[in-house]
Every structure is written in C-alpha cells, then in structure tokens.
Automatic annotation (TrEMBL):
PANTHER family: ARAC-FAMILY TRANSCRIPTIONAL REGULATOR, TRANSCRIPTIONAL REGULATORY PROTEIN. It comes from Chryseobacterium camelliae. Residues 212-290 form the HTH araC/xylS-type domain. Pfam families: HTH_18. Coiled coil: none annotated. Keywords: DNA-binding, Transcription, Transcription regulation. This is AraC family transcriptional activator of pobA.
C-alpha cells in the first residue's frame, strides 16, 4: 500500500510541476496523498465538512462549506475533523498565473495576504456555482484543447473575482503613487522569505538595510515610503513577520528552539529568546507549551 501511495504522490507532483497547475476532487480516502511543495504553489480549496485550519500563527475552526486561499509564502496546515469530508481544489504556480493579463488579481486580493481573509463562508447557492467551475477545470485539464491553459487561468480569475464580491470595497482600493509601489514591492519581497521550510535555509533578509539593498534603493527612501503608506516602519513590518513565523514554527514543528533560532537568522539561541520575549512578553519555550 505504501508503494502505491508513493507512486501516486510522484505522479501527482510530476504532473503539477509540468503543467504549473492541478485541479482535483478531494475525497476522504486520498486526502493524505496530496503532497506538494507549498513554497511553489498557490491553492484554492472548496470544501464541505468540519475542519481546523492553522494559518500562520492563527487557527480557524470551520463547519459547513468554505473557500480557502493558500499562499505558498505563508505557513498553514489543515486538520479534517468530520468523518465526511469532500470538496475540490486547484494548485497553481505564480509563473503559470502570471501569463494571464489579469495576474494582478493575486497581488490585489486580500485572500492571499498574511493579514487578509484566507477563509470565506460559502452559501449553498455559491457552492453549486463554484463546484461547476472546479468540475470544468478538472475536465479541461484532461482535454487536448490547445488553449486549455488560458481557459483554466480564466476559471481561476473567475473564482477570485466572485470571491472579491464578498469583500468590502475598501479592501481593494488602489493608489498608484511611487510610495505605494515601493511599499508593495517590499511587502511582496518580505513575504517571499517565508515560510521557513528547513533548518538549513535560514532567513537571509533580516533588517531594513538588507531589503533596501536588495531593492536597489536607499534605506531612507524605503523607510519613508513604507511609513507613509502603512503608518508603520520597515523594521516594524519585518519584526512582526519574524515573530509570526517564530510562533508558527514553535506551534507546528518539532524543531528545537535552537534550530528555530538559527532558521530565523539568529546565531545564538539567547539572542532569539531575548528578541521573542521583548516582542511577545514570554519566552519561546513557554509559548510552545501553551502556558501563556
């Protein structure tokens, strides 16, 4: 049985990487074999059942039908609680979706942002509409239609835009000034540093100077743009994101605190302990044990 599962996983990943996308139906018996690299693929998932979603350092317990948006740069995990659990999902790479003229939707949508809305409650009517879209994608990916990639990108865009209708309009107001553009690039670069998936690939960009150098701007220009646009300093954004990742690693991995410290760019665990306690009011060990 293990050999069969490994073979299915291998075939699944090979097809996913080759096409840049994979749509499929979620069934109870094969839920555990959908193994893929989260750092490479976005995920949109329509499910009916009871589940608990761990998204970054937060948890959402949901019952009924939901639409979930997974960002490859934000750590998340999924627990199925109910015995009956069905749905549909599509995985797709940023490179695949960027071929669309409407690829800006990923960056504009709050669904894929760390402070956004990764889970939407779906009505019965919306569920039936979305199921038809997922079924069309599944059927289309098996077809020989020469333009099926573009058609599937259109289906993804349709799901995103149908979901945007459920959000307040202020969530996607645009202001195309220079400060906003620079801030958007900084935030995107910041998110691309996460999640930390192995101890052997520690965080490289750790402060405002590192990000300014990477973006080829003066650190004062970056600080001014970020402060003007968000009301928070560049350092505050970096610090908050590192704390969020630290909490997620403490809660959802079995790495030692020393390994977590190293993965986040701290040469000595003491430095990480001091940083974490200053930002959260507690030390990493106490947080991990839940004694807070």
């Amino acid at each position: 049985m293990k050999g069969k599962v490994k073979r299915i996983v291998s075939e699944f990943n090979s097809e996913l990487k080759l096409q840049g996308f994979k749509a499929f139906q979620i069934e109870e018996e094969d839920a555990d074999i959908r193994v893929y690299s989260r750092k490479e693929f976005y995920k949109i998932c329509l499910t009916t059942g009871r589940s608990k979603i761990h998204y970054s350092d937060k948890s959402f317990e949901q019952e009924g039908t939901i639409l979930f948006f997974g960002n490859p740069h934000i750590p998340y995990s999924w627990e199925s609680i109910s015995r009956s659990y069905v749905g549909y999902a599509i995985l797709f790479s940023e490179e695949f979706f960027k071929n669309s003229e409407r690829s800006e939707s990923l960056q504009q949508s709050s669904f894929f942002k760390i402070g956004g809305t990764p889970v939407l409650k779906i009505t019965t009517e919306q569920r039936e509409f979305l199921i038809k879209i997922f079924q069309k994608m599944i059927a289309e990916q098996e077809s020989g239609y020469v333009y099926k990639d573009e058609l599937i990108r259109n289906y993804i865009s349709l799901i995103i835009h149908e979901s945007l209708k459920l959000e307040p309009s202020e969530n996607y107001e645009k202001n195309k000034n220079a400060s906003l553009r620079l801030t958007s690039v900084f935030i995107e670069l910041l998110e691309r540093q996460f999640p930390i998936e192995t101890v052997n690939t520690p965080l490289k960009l750790k402060n405002a100077q590192h990000y300014a150098r990477h973006l080829h701007v003066h650190v004062n220009s970056l600080n001014r743009a970020v402060k003007e646009t968000t009301g928070k300093s560049t350092t505050a954004h970096i610090t908050e994101r590192i704390v969020t990742e630290a909490k997620a690693l403490l809660l959802h991995t079995d790495w030692s605190i020393s390994e977590i410290a190293y993965s986040l760019g701290y040469e000595y665990p003491t430095y990480f302990n001091n940083f974490f306690k200053k930002q959260t009011g507690t030390n990493p060990k106490t947080f991990r044990l839940g004694d807070v």
